[in-house]
Amino acid sequence: MTGTLAALLASLTMTAPVAADEFPDRPMDLVVGFGTGGSADRMTRAMSNFLSEEMGVPVRVTNRPGAGTQVSANYILSRPDDGYTLYASTFAPYLTNTILTGGAEYAIDDFSFINFQWFDLDLIAANKDSGFEDLPSLLEEIRDNPGQVRASVVQGSAGHLMVRLLLEEAGIPQENLNLVTYNSGGEARSAVAGGQVHFTSISAEGSEGIREFLTPLAVINDERIDQWDAPPINEALEPMDLEVPVLQGSMRGFAVSSEMERQYPERFEALSEAIQNTLARKDVQDHLASNDIGGVWVGPERSNELMRENYEIFEQYAHLLN
Amino acid sequence: MIDLAAVEQGLALLFSSFAPWMVVVPGIVIGLIFGATPGLQISMAMAIFLPMTLYMDFVQAMLFLTAIFTGGSFGSGIPAILMNIPGTSSAIATAFDGYPMARQGKHNQALGVALASSVIGVLMGYLILFVMIQPLSFMVLKLGPAEMFAIILWGMTLIASLRGEQMLKGLMAGFVGMLVGTIGFNELGMARGTMGQTYLLDGVPVIPAMMGMFAASELFKLANKGYIVESEASRKVRIGEIFQGFKMAVTYPWVLIRGGLIGVFVGAVPGVGSSVSNLLSYVETQRRDEDPSSFGKGNPKGVVASESANSTSEAGSMATLLALGIPGGGATAVMLAAFAMHNITGGPQFIRQQTDVVYAIIFANFAQVFLLMVIGLLFIPLLANIVKVPMRYLIPSVLVLAVMGSFGLTGNMTGPATVLIFAVVGWLLRHYGYSVPAAVIGMLLGAMAEKSLLHSYQISGGDLAYVFERPVTMIILALLLVSLFGQRLVGWFRNRQRVASA
Questions:
Q1: Among A232, A252, B299, B428, which has the minimal tally of Cβ within 10 Å of its Cβ?
Q2: Which 3 state secondary structure label does DSSP give A37?
Q3: Higher confidence at residue A8 or residue B336?
Q4: Can you state the angle between helices B330-341 and B300-324, rounded to 10 degrees?
Q5: Contact B228, B221 (CB under 8 A)
Q6: Where are the domains of chain B?
Q7: CA torsion through residues B305, B311, B317, B323, sign
Q8: This protein's superkingdom (chain B) (predicted)?
């Protein structure tokens, strides 16, 4: 209310220093695209108190789960574009998928990403007793014995697309592989741990518990990582003379509607600064680290770029996912 | 199997100070309240109180969360018995015989039976967990989609016995329920039956729909009655009768043990859990009984079967969480977040290296059982007073609770809208003699059955011979056929012999 009044006064006096816009002057909403307890929710709740300190107003966290984040995305776009509603979600691959396969009516450009703070990478791993020790021999088996190799993935995930891409690039017919698509990572992991399927392609985070049942074959990354002893995907494919795009597993962070950025660039700036300052604090970093939550600052420009790249790659191969 | 040194350390963890126990009683009470309130879920309770566990050490945090779990598993049976409203999907079968008992004025006994079965169920579950946590979790891993399909099919045979007025009407209600269950995205990422509505993309929210069908339709039916229990004399809350019910449960040891075994194994399966185990246990108990037709009319064995299975499921889902780090449902998913807060990753390594912690959690649950018994006995008289509330007050307050709870579940108006739409659907079904429970079970299990069938198709590449690679699937299917047609087959053979010897 006072905001509109101030704006009214400013417009009347025609001396409108935009900085006089007292933003924020009332509680803010963080809307999570998933239910309680998931990764996006944990990230949001871990950040909310610190953000509230930074912004000087209370911050409420509400969950609007459903339809692979389509429910929350529509909700964000239906809210006033005044900067008081922030969108927290796992944008890649979920937001991308709602547009490409979920029949959503918005476009990626309808959102403006403030920051991605948490990046996951995917892992391709075989069941320990399956006998597969490296990626090329696995691909050859799929090529030579159609219908014999089984794999589990999460439907529509980057890991799912990776498997399709690998077959595509290696010139192996997609139907040679019996691919089981789950809606939950837990079930996809149970399937490979129990030897129901020979291998899985899934986010590395969360696969820690079933480590003993797995032989890691490749990490979807440009370089090796400490947690899993496996070559980066393109290094693993070298003997086959293949190269695939390195798909980003998942990206979590904060966004607003792009309309909001257009109308209130200075508010967008304020939000972006608040998140940057929050992530720069040592106590915040310690808190995030102790909860296994990512907390990097890449900034709006890079975040929007990353999201566009992610969308373009998925768009290019969307036909493989159906 | 059992590491005695770790047992000692586990006991030391628990009894070296009073601190871990401070949270158990509040935990059980929270669980009871959330379980007993239609529309509030146990996983919701855990998520709300999760931030408090930040200030606890890991053992204390787990004690707190499992106490909520334990309280909730009994709590959800209370509205099922008193009002025919299962608090969660794990108490559906509790309502089948619990509610008729209450209508006959045996609400005290029914609650006593439910409490005893819950208490014994939790105890049994954690005993099994203590002896065989590793083998149990590995066994679950060996269950593939084909086995899951066979198990769920078994649960679905229950629809046939929930007939309503006629068998055909029961089956029709079940099939309509199944169709409703397939609305939304399936595991192939295809949206079906949404009619272009965004809020149907996730399908019909099962719990609000269930509450609408059971609760609202039941309450409409009772609207012209004064009270839930007709005779004033029976409306009393008698501690003696509660104890009577408590003893009654113990007189059916086989029903308890069967429920417990089904609960542990089915509860350990990710994504299936207690919502299927209570139904399976009920099916088997009814089928093996000398008088199957007495079920659904207030047979306490039905309550024992359901409550023992859903309480044992807790231990089953804890097995996969501790031994594999894989959450099987909403409650264990929240626990996984508590694991992360304390930098602990569930899995075989965790069980090997921190056996004392695992044992401490298990022993604490043995103690929780007795606390649940005491708190439950204190709570029941309080809750049983619902039968004294005149209908004209009860109906609006329960409906408001259900609608508010469903709003909390879906986070938007989809929940309340679902409750109200399905209240009408439930009333219509009942009015025309179609079985409401059959429709609910069709909805719940139909979606699961479709999922496991789809996964079986994917994993086998569409080759039916896959079934012959899976001995367990064949065993389950054989058992299913025997339990369905066993007696007829025996009779048929006897007839043939008689004809042959004549």
A1: B428
A2: coil
A3: B336
A4: 30
A5: no
A6: 4-469
A7: negative
A8: Bacteria
For A45-79, the pLDDT digits (tens) are: 888 888 888 888 888 888 887 777 888 898 898 88
Q: In 3D, which of B237, B278, B236 has the Cα closest to residue B259?
A: B278
Do A37 and B145 count as a contact with CB atoms less than 8 A apart?
A: no
Contact present, B86 and B72 (Cβ < 8 Å): no
Q: Which residues contact A70 (CB under 8 A, 6 or more apart)?
A: A98, A102, A104, B198, B201
- Report pLDDT for B502: 59
Alpha carbon distances (Å) from B53 to A184, B283, B323: 26, 39, 21
Contact status of B330 with chain A (Cβ, < 8 Å):
yes
CA dihedral sign of residues B34, B200, B432, B176: negative
Which of B57, B141, B272 is the mutation pick for testing A, counting most A CBs within 10 A? B141
pLDDT at res. B194: 75
In B, which residues are within 8 Å of A193 by CB distance?
A: 141, 324, 326
Question: What are the pLDDT digits (tens) for B463-474?
Answer: 888 888 888 888
* Chain-chain contact of B458 with A64 (C-beta, under 8 angstroms): no
Question: If 0-12 CB within 10 Å is exposed, 13-18 middle and 19+ buried, where does residue B389 land?
Answer: middle
* Cα A115 from chain centre: 12
Q: Give the pLDDT band of residue B493 (cuts 50, 70, 90).
A: confident
pLDDT at A88 over 90: yes
Beta strands in chain A (DSSP E): 28-32, 59-63, 85-90, 111-120, 122-127, 149-154, 177-182, 199-203, 214-219, 250-257
Give chain B's mean pLDDT.
Answer: 82
Which residues 31-50 of chain B have a CB within 8 Å of chain A?
Answer: 43-44, 46-47, 50
Q: Largest Cα–Cα distance in chain B? A: 80
Residues linked to residue A62 through DSSP beta bridges, in sequence order: A31
Shortest CA gap B473–chain A (Å): 13
Burial tier of A11 (Cβ tally within 10 Å: 0-12, 13-18, 19+): exposed
Instruction: Label residue A21 by pLDDT band (50, 70, 90).
Output: low
Pick the range with the lowest mean pLDDT from A122-126, B199-203, B414-418.
B199-203
Of A84-98, B171-185, B266-280, B412-426, which range is least confident? B266-280
SS3 B335: helix
The closest CB to that of A290, out of B343, B411, B412, belongs to: B343
**What would the mean pLDDT of B326-336 be, rounded to a whole number?**
78
Q: What chain B residue is nearest to A127 in terms of C-alpha separation?
A: B141
**DSSP 8-state code for residue A194:** T
Q: Mapping DSSP to helix (H, G, I), strand (E, B) and coil, where does residue A219 land? A: strand
Tens digit of pLDDT for each residue in B8-34?
Answer: 787 777 777 777 788 888 999 999 888
* pLDDT of res. B1: 59
Contact at CB, B187 and A181, closer than 8 angstroms: yes
Q: Taking a C-beta distance cutoff of 8 angstroms, is the pair B271, B328 a contact?
A: yes
